[in-house]
Amino acid sequence: MFPKRILSSRKRKLPINFFISDLHLSQEQPGTIQLFLRFLQQQAPQADNLYILGDLFDTWIGDDDSAPPIPSILTGLKQLSASGTRIQIQAGNRDFLLGERFAAATGCSLLPEIHVIELEGVQTLLMHGDLLCTDDKEYQQARIMLRSSAFASDFLARPIEERRTIAADYRKRSGEVTSLKADGIMDVNSETVAEIMRQNGVLQLIHGHTHRPKFHTFELDGRAARRIVLSDWHGNRGAALQVTDNSAVFISC
Ligand code: MN
Asked: How far is the CA of 3 from the centre of ligand 1 (A)?
């Protein structure tokens, strides 16, 4: 039996929620993988909830891919969920093919691309963020095709090595196009933000994707609203948003 004192202090413990996104894990960035595995072992177990808002992986060619570093990442996630931290994950524009087999292997729950939670009493909209970048018409057009069930079933039916080649080629071309685009086009459109918050009845939005971490406060239909943009992870630098009770802060990982 635990002494009563410990039981009651555990009960009073404030719930901790961590939010991360845009780690872009890949074999080419071993430092970020090490950082993430350490985060899963050392910081994340303190949290009741870990939310991953997209682009955990730099590319995802199907749940049947077991090339390194995937197995070690799946194991790390599985150990965390087994230890009692609830992990919920949204797909990003890079890892949009994450599926049920991944969820079963890790104990993560897959969230829809537009999802509202109650976060410490505040209705909060969670998104990866790419849907908010409506100034990039070319991207939104391509997204419709890439996110169709026809694309997924055609792509996933191909042999894994062919998928790997297609994904690498696509990534290279999209990188070339992105580097030519004006900076503003790659950010969110504020009217789209307002509209989607209105539709979902929220005054708080948390998203990633733009790699421009910041707390934005603004007025939405005469009421105080907040948009929190998560940080990407790069090299040996990572950050999480920690929300506990009424405080929301970025912590380094
Ligand atoms: Mn993204």
From this structure: 47
